[in-house]
Write a structure and sequence with these properties.
This protein has 106 residues and is mainly alpha-helical. Helices cover 57% and strands 0% of the residues. The relative contact order is 0.13.
């Protein structure tokens, strides 16, 4: 089976497609967004997740839709979690679900 391409951290996209085209430093971009340089740097370098608040700030300042940016974050997190799937020890629950009749008698 062919492996799928691993989704990039959204910080990589934001750096290359949003910040660099404007020729802004991280400090300048952080000022535009109203966040600390440290917070933006952590995002751009993949050390922190993209929050909805940051995604909206980026949308307002530079244009990329927050929905798109947050979908990128979710795709990245799904891939990260799948990579450590073997470390998550949970057995499938085998039980009988209640029927509609059972629920009506509660």
């Amino acid at each position: 089976m062919m492996r799928m391409v691993r989704p990039a951290h959204p910080g990589q996209f934001i750096r290359m497609e949003v910040i660099e085209p404007f020729d802004l430093s991280v400090t300048q971009a952080a000022k535009v967004l109203g966040v600390t340089r440290a917070a933006l740097s952590a995002l751009l370098n993949g050390r922190s997740a993209l929050s909805p608040d940051m995604a909206l700030r980026i949308e307002k300042a530079f244009g990329p839709k927050m929905d798109t940016l947050l979908r990128m974050q979710i795709a990245y997190e799904i891939a990260e979690t799948r990579d450590r799937e073997a470390d998550i020890k949970v057995k499938r629950y085998v039980g009988k679900p209640r029927t509609r009749h059972d629920q009506a008698t509660l």
